[in-house]
C-alpha cells in the first residue's frame, strides 16, 4: 500500500465521540491524534465568529434562536454539551478564537463558512491577520462565490472548494474562478484515482468528507488523497499507524 502521508482531519472535532463543534470535541480530536480539525462558523449579532454547524442553536444547545440574532453574551449562556451526555454538560458554544487558544500550533484548522455575510468575511480576515494564521487555516465552502470574494479581499487566505454533488474535474475547478484554490473537498463517494492524480498534478489537495468506516478510509488512503475528514479521527489514526 502507498505510504504517502494522509492527514487526519477531525470533523467538527471528534464528532463521533463528543458533541460536535465544542471545545471538548476539539480537545478529543487532538488527543486522538488528528493533524487538523474541521469546524463551521456563523456570525453572531455582534459580529463575532461562533462555532456551530447550524444557523440556529436549536439542535445542539438547550436554547432556541438564530445565531445571527443573538449576542455572544446570550449565546455563551447556552449549554452545548448536555445533548451529547452528562459528561459534556456545561460545554459552551465556542468562538473561533477559543478554538485557536485550545488547539496546538502544529494543527491545521479547516474553517467552513456557510454564508456570504460581509460581517463574517471581515471578522474572519481580521482574525487571520491579527493572529497570523494564514499558514495553518484553510477556509472551505459549498458556496464557491463567497470563497472567491474572500480570496479577492485577502489573497493570503487558502480556500477549499466543497462539493456535495459531482465535482468539477480538478483542471476545470482550478481555472474556473480566476483565483487559485488550495484544496478540493468532494463527497468521498465522488473521488476516484484519476480525480486525485489530476488534482495532484495541479498542486491541489484533495480532502474527501465525511468518512467514518475503515474500509472506505483504507480505499481513500490507497488512492493517495491528501487527507480524510472523519468524525472518528482516532480510528483513522489507528489505521494509518497500522499501514
Ligand atoms: O467539510 C465537510 C463537511 O463538513 C461538509 O458538510 O454539513 O458536515 O458541514 P457538513
Ligand atoms: Ca462542515
UniProtKB/TrEMBL annotation:
Single GO biological process annotation from the record: lipid metabolic process
A Pfam family reported for this protein in Swiss-Prot or TrEMBL: GDPD
Top-level taxon: Bacteria
Domain GP-PDE: 6-240
One annotated GO molecular function: phosphoric diester hydrolase activity
Database matches in PROSITE patterns: GP_PDE
Coiled coil: none
Descriptive protein name: Glycerophosphodiester phosphodiesterase
Organism whose genome encodes this protein: Paenibacillus flagellatus
Amino acid at each position: 500500500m502507498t505510504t504517502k502521508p494522509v492527514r487526519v482531519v477531525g470533523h467538527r472535532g471528534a464528532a463521533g465521540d463528543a458533541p460536535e463543534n465544542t471545545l471538548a470535541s476539539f480537545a478529543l480530536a487532538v488527543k486522538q491524534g488528528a493533524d487538523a480539525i474541521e469546524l463551521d462558523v456563523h456570525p453572531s449579532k455582534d459580529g463575532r465568529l461562533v462555532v456551530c454547524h447550524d444557523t440556529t442553536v436549536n439542535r445542539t444547545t438547550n436554547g432556541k434562536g438564530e445565531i445571527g440574532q443573538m449576542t455572544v453574551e446570550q449565546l455563551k449562556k447556552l449549554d452545548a454539551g448536555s445533548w451529547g451526555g452528562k459528561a459534556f454538560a456545561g460545554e459552551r458554544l465556542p468562538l473561533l478564537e477559543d478554538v485557536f487558544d485550545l488547539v496546538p500550533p502544529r494543527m491545521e484548522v479547516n474553517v467552513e463558512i456557510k454564508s456570504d455575510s460581509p460581517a463574517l468575511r471581515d471578522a474572519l480576515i481580521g482574525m487571520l491577520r491579527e493572529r497570523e494564521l494564514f499558514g495553518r487555516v484553510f477556509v472551505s465552502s459549498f458556496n464557491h462565490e463567497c470563497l472567491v470574494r474572500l480570496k479577492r479581499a485577502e489573497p493570503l487566505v487558502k480556500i477549499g472548494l466543497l462539493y456535495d454533488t459531482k465535482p468539477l474535474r480538478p483542471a476545470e475547478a482550478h481555472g474556473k474562478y480566476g483565483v487559485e484554490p488550495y484544496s478540493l473537498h468532494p463527497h468521498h463517494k465522488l473521488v476516484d484515482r484519476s480525480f486525485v492524480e489530476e488534482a495532484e498534478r495541479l498542486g491541489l489537495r484533495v480532502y474527501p468528507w465525511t468518512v467514518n468506516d475503515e474500509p472506505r478510509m483504507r480505499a481513500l488512503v490507497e488512492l493517495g488523497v491528501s487527507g480524510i475528514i472523519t468524525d472518528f479521527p482516532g480510528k483513522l489514526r489507528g489505521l494509518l499507524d497500522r499501514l
